[in-house]
Hints:
The chain folds into three domains: 6-302, ABC transporter involved in vitamin B12 uptake, BtuC (Orthogonal Bundle); 307-375, Arc Repressor Mutant, subunit A; 380-448, Orthogonal Bundle (Diphtheria Toxin Repressor, domain 2). The chain has 19 helices and three strands. The chain has helices spanning 16-38, 42-51, 53-65, 73-100, 106-131, 136-144, 152-171, 173-181, 183-188, 193-215, 220-232, 238-270, 280-298, 304-330, 338-342, 349-361, 377-400, 408-415, 421-430; strands at residues 336-337, 365-369, 372-375. The protein has a three-stranded antiparallel β-sheet with strand order 1-3-2. The radius of gyration is 32 Å and the shape is elongated.
Amino acid sequence: xxxxxxxxxxxxxxxxxxxxxxxxxxxxxxxxxxxxxxxxxxxxxxxxxxxxxxxxxxxxxxxxxxxxxxxxxxxxxxxxxxxxxxxxxxxxxxxxxxxxxxxxxxxxxxxxxxxxxxxxxxxxxxxxxxxxxxxxxxxxxxxxxxxxxxxxxxxxxxxxxxxxxxxxxxxxxxxxxxxxxxxxxxxxxxxxxxxxxxxxxxxxxxxxxxxxxxxxxxxxxxxxxxxxxxxxxxxxxxxxxxxxxxxxxxxxxxxxxxxxxxxxxxxxxxxxxxxxxxxxxxxxxxxxxxxxxxxxxxxxxxxxxxxxxxxxxxxxxxxxxxxxxxxxxxxxxxxxxxxxxxxxxxxxxxxxxxxxxxxxxxxxxxxxxxxxxxxxxxxxxxxxxxxxxxxxxxxxxxxxxxxxxxxxxxxxxxxxxxxxxxxxxxxxxxxxxxxxxxxxxxxxxxxxx
Length: 449
């Protein structure tokens, strides 16, 4: 049971800064993440976040070398952020150099920079642990994130960053749209694509470098991609995707803080003898990943579960139409045994029993004995409609497109289930209302259906 009101996280002096700061950080990352995701540069966020880690270490080394300690937290944070920004840019230069000059594949260059820079950072960190042990905790904060210790100054930093990104997106929306989906066309229109790309890249680096304070170097790339990937499942429009991604990012930032604090309190009370703590940064990423997974599964158009259901429903409709068509060919008024129907279908007997039961329930088929079926009047009309569409399409393939008669049947078997009434009318006019198919079988006339 959660313990406090969600609104308290916006008013409590201790909880306010981590919550609002995380929401703004996630908003900034989610907005730039849309462009990164759509340009298929998802690994870029991972590479840049890891490339920033040596800069974090260098910032601590510089701070320690000039005698700064924990009393100068602001100055140390500034040095760390500056160092992280510089090495992230250096990582970018290394990626571009390897791709353009050394002709290394982009994914290989990204993986190399990610592992090499992070390895350098870990090596330097092992020395800082002994040389500047009092400052070593600063490194841990940026490696794993520590959103719970943010203060009001972080709200200001993240608010300024999110505002700048939002303004750039609004002012350059059309340019971003063109460059994202067709860079060469944008260049042909005279747009300064390189300048716009550089600007947005700097914003991406800034979002990553500033964001590692909340969720850490290891997890920062998730906050770029997860909200954007979730938003993509709901829309094909860029501006809607930006809005949804920003919303999912802010929801992740808030929910991560809320669940981290409340679950930690709850489990600490339940297991009073143990120390139980759920870190805020990883919880933010877990929430973002959960939103992404739910979207991938249940989004109305693209969700995997929805698509599986839609495919199953379409296959069920096709089977129903195939059964009716087979019964129509055997005889519209004949009693037809289950075994005769099975011989025309490529489905299991159990599934066919289910289909026939549903057709009977809906009034398309009637049962006249044990495993004996007959088409109803409505069923005969539906079956004749399917036969008409099948044979119309065969005529179109054979007479209009010149496809061999022996090759038209299989394609018509597929098309008969998806031809719309509008397309049927167009085919009828185009083919001058044919009376026979290429196999000289009669085509049921439209007026009788």
